[in-house]
Design goal:
Elements (H helix, E strand, L loop, with lengths): L1 H4 L18 H9 L4 H27 L8 H7 L6 H13 L8 H14 L10 H21 L5 H27 L3 H11 L4 H25 L13 H27 L4 H15 L3 H11 L12 H27 L2 H9 L4 H16 L1 H14 L9 E2 H8 L10 H29 L4
Helix pairs in contact: 5-11, 5-18, 6-7, 7-8, 8-10, 9-10, 11-12, 11-14, 11-17, 11-18, 12-14, 13-14, 14-16, 14-17, 15-16, 17-19
Length: 445
């Protein structure tokens, strides 16, 4: 007992905090910018270059800039060394809408607000069945957008699809409201009501939803049948509006088209595999401008005499095929990155080919290829500037058209700088969303 009483108990010394100069902002600066004398010299040299460029740009774009003027000459008289942002202000609406009639531009704004509202639930955590909402936006919204953008007399099929799009949009938001307020979907709420009434779930849940959708379709069909908007030809479309339409259609078609082509290229059936390889290699072997010229000038020669096609539709078809061919190789790379054990495990479970691809292989492959997929989308958005060569007034052509106007002749730098900012914002947002998806799905290591 005596020995135990005199035992010395050693307690570990508490860990001391790291030196202040090695953590936080100061630590980051020392580690990345000032870790040696040579690094310090390079850092100060780069800072001097950046400061000089920013000072020149600020002086040209703000200090000496002209914000109010009626002509390019007036800008030069006020400040010959500054930017003429007055021209950008005068032409701003044309940069956004092109030559679309001013009194009808509310239709473009309405379609934009509808698609934004349609996609907002995809970012709400409480909302269930987000895949269904996204699929409906892809499948039925284009009919509503085309009806609003073009107008004019429509067939009963077009009117029906527009009413279906509006009805689905309303049902989606009713579903969102139920998800937020009751933490249950619209279908679950209706099923619970039917169960309380003594009905069997599997027998009545779909007819109730179907009846509600049918009722809304009838109402909207009756309303829209009596409204005929003014016809606006695609030759009047232009600016950022046209750029987003072409890029949006190309992006929506590229991913499913690329998946189909990638699966066809890996098919065990020789005929399908050869057709897919020929298609992919053909479109990947020529530049996009060649595809656009073929679609606009050569393809109509193979049509019956008297048949005319819309130039915008031809351009969008060419862009879609071109984007699908490039996306097919991205998807194929993802499929090859999946270990063979995944295929063997799916086959051992007795899954069919399509179930294996839909449930196991494709989700993993697409998740791995998120950076490449979004990179293709960004490239496609920038490639839409090529449609200006075939006579379409996209954003780039509208920017260049400003400098050819008699009142604003020679004004190119300011408009191109404005266009560069727009493209940067769009591409940056797509890049940031890609990184958000990677973090959400935990694709990094």
């Amino acid at each position: 007992m005596a020995d135990n009483e005199h035992q010395i108990i050693f307690k570990p010394k508490p860990a001391e905090p790291p030196p202040p100069a090695t953590v936080g902002v100061i630590g980051w600066l020392r580690e990345n910018l000032f870790y040696s004398w040579f690094s310090t010299v390079v850092t100060f040299f780069c800072l001097w270059i950046i400061y000089s460029l920013l000072a020149i740009a600020f002086d040209w774009g703000f200090t000496k800039a002209v914000w109010d003027a009626q002509t390019r000459r007036e800008c030069l008289d006020k400040s010959p060394d500054g930017a003429c942002w007055a021209g950008v202000k005068v032409w701003f609406s044309s940069f956004i809408y092109g030559r679309y009639p001013v009194e009808e531009r509310w239709r473009i704004n309405t379609a934009f607000l509808v698609i934004v509202a349609w996609l907002i639930p995809l970012w709400l955590k409480q909302v269930k069945q987000k895949i269904s909402i996204g699929i409906t936006a892809v499948l039925v919204f284009p009919f509503l957008a085309a009806y609003l953008f073009t107008g004019g007399e429509r067939s009963w099929f077009s009117t029906f699809m527009v009413t279906l799009a509006i009805s689905v949009f309303v049902l989606n938001w009713i579903h969102v409201v139920f998800c937020i307020t009751t933490t249950k979907s619209l279908r679950e709420v209706l099923v619970n009501k039917l169960n309380l009434a003594g009905h069997h779930e599997s027998t009545h849940k779909y007819p109730v939803l179907g009846f509600l959708a049918l009722l809304m379709v009838i109402i909207w069909f009756t309303v829209l049948s009596s409204w005929v908007p003014q016809y606006v030809g695609t030759d009047k479309w232009g600016g950022l509006f046209l750029t987003l339409v072409i890029a949006g259609v190309g992006i929506v078609f590229a991913l499913p088209g690329g998946v189909i082509l990638a699966l066809a290229r890996r098919s065990q059936m020789p005929f399908i595999r050869v057709i897919a390889i020929a298609f992919i290699e053909l479109f990947r072997s020529v530049p996009l401008i060649t595809v656009l010229f073929m679609a606009v000038t050569m393809f109509p020669l193979f049509l019956p005499e008297g048949t005319t096609l819309d130039k915008l539709v031809q351009a969008m078809v060419g862009v879609c095929l071109f984007a699908a061919a490039y996306m097919a190789e991205v998807v194929r790379g993802g499929l090859q990155a999946i270990p063979r054990g995944q295929y063997e495990a799916a086959a051992a479970m007795g899954l069919s080919y399509w179930k294996m691809m839909n449930l196991i292989i494709l989700p993993q492959a697409l998740k791995l290829m998120i950076p490449n997929i979004v990179g293709n989308f960004i490239g496609l958005l920038k490639d839409t500037t090529l449609v200006s060569i075939i006579g379409l007034y996209d954003l780039l052509r509208m920017l260049n058209a400003t400098g050819n106007h008699p009142k604003w002749i020679g004004m190119h730098t300011e408009t191109l700088a404005f266009g560069a900012v727009i493209y940067f914002v769009l591409c940056f947002c797509m890049s940031q969303y890609s990184q958000h998806l990677e973090r959400k799905l935990r694709t990094g290591h």
